[in-house]
Amino acid sequence: MRRSIVCLYALLSLVILGSLTIPRERTAAAPVRQDDNTLTIWTCCGMWAGFQKAAIAGSGIAYLGYYKDLWNKRFPGLKINEVDLQSYSDMVAKTILAVNAGNPPDLIGTQGELGLLVARKAVQSLDPYFKLYKLSAGMFLPAMANWARIKGHWYAIPATSNPSQGEILYIPAFVKAAGWDPNKIPATWDQLWTATKKVTKWDSQGNLVRIGVPVNGASTDAINLFCGSFAIYDAKTGKFHANSPCIKNYFRFEQRLVNFYGGVAKYTKFISGDAGIWGGYSTKAYVPTGRIVFSFPDAYWSGQQIDNFWNVDWRLAPPPTPHGTLAERRAIRTTAWQVEIPTGAKHSKLAFDFAKFTFIDYGYVQGPTTNGYTVRAQADKWAQVVVSTAGKIRASHHFPGNPMAAAAKLVMQDAQLGQAYLPTDVAAPYYNQQLTRAWQQIEYGRASIDQALDQMQRLVDNQQRILHAQYGM
Asked: Which helix H or strand E contains 149, and what residues bound it?
């Protein structure tokens, strides 16, 4: 689901930025004359964007629509040169080049790429700023603080949380129509399997017309929740896990699910017909029309989008875990993205102040953008903004009720519990690539689960050793 958001936001960013007089690629590469009240910000892939007057105020991508008055009051006359890049890998590569050329931007953003940027000395230590403003790890959601530090030192500013990725989104009326009790939404993976078998439906030709839970395959979020812990990576030892018993059992669950749905071809045929919820109203969107009964892993932002177009009473339930306990929800990933100041940035202090003001002092304002707060104490303010916005949207369409009011309570609870994040180790991109390849081998019957994951573990361990030696880690 989140990938759909990223794709939409990236597209909107390109539309917005396309109206600027300076071409995007040229802006990224050429020196820009700057005064002391100017920031150059590189953005990407659904991060904050839309800083100029050309931005569509009030749209999900245009932060200007939400922060204009606050920014004008705190930073009067501030000018922002905004550059939208195509991918996070593009962000990393261009940042390293810009630092080496002595012309870096003032702020960039990342998801899991911080470790490589630190290894290449492409971003500054932010310890002095955190000390200056008396900012401590305990202020933030647990995963956000852990994610922004490398070996105990701050290199990123926690920018936005998910704030909880992995709940089950469902529509009670469709759950009941499919033959399952909407008051007993699965809390464990065993229950999810039982419910899926109950609600899945085929037509007379054997084609799927309704499923329980989608196939998630190489999803690190789903793996962690299946194991009830941060299973893919051990932050203390710095070791990646690919072939632990729990991860193998997760892939056995996914393999069984594919087989139950009739195999790869039949499932692919079914799921490819889903128009999704991010392109506007469509009768071919599976969640709001009941063809996916238990949308997992999902989050509040899908409900927020449904409120814009579909008159349905949606709900959120806790994510499935091994035993359905609160303690196992530590496997929830709350991290979304964060921002850094490149080495040699011309306006480091202004950049930190701007990011701190936006994400730390007033992070709760991000709610309507489908981004979450990072400061623990702002949970209630953030929820009020999100619930109020959703209520106004539903009222404008004459939709009854406000499902976000109940959902926000669960989101805030899970945000405090979640401990997982996208690993920042330099080998993380390689791990993700190999995980996808391993699932493809399993899915298409090219290798057994043991063969695919044991081989992956060997490859990842070897690549991590090479990369750590290369960067002196």
From this structure: strand 149-150
